[in-house]
Write a structure and sequence with these properties.
By secondary structure, the chain is mostly helical. It has one domain: Helix Hairpins, CATH 1.10.287. It is 59% helix and 0% strand. It contains two helices and no strands.
Length: 80
């Protein structure tokens, strides 16, 4: 497992895969209490990291609006 300090280097896809693995281990219930707490904390950090990556991607998309010629111009909300 990578530490929270270098979580910035973890891609969205790898973070999701690790988070899925943590959820599966916790659901099986065959993990000792102390380890359960540790991997739960790691899962929370991964969740936060994924949320930040998604927010950043959404912000990038919101900044792009194409004109009729297909050129990017101005900004427009993603929902707009």
């Amino acid at each position: 497992m990578t530490t929270e300090a270098n979580l910035a280097d973890v891609s969205f896809e790898k973070a999701v895969a690790e988070l899925e693995s943590i959820v599966a281990r916790l659901e099986r219930g065959d993990v000792a209490l102390e380890e359960s707490i540790a991997i739960y904390e790691r899962g929370e950090a991964l969740k936060k990291h994924c949320e930040q990556l998604l927010a950043a991607a959404e912000n990038r998309i919101e900044k792009i609006r194409l004109d009729r010629a297909g050129k990017a111009q101005g900004t427009e909300p993603l929902d707009g």
